[in-house]
Amino acid sequence: MKETVANASADTPFSPEYAAAYLNKSVNTLQYMRCHKSDAITYSKTGGHIVYRRKNLDAYLDKCEKNVHLIFD
Question: Cβ(25)–Cβ(34) under 8 Å?
Answer without folding.
Answer: no
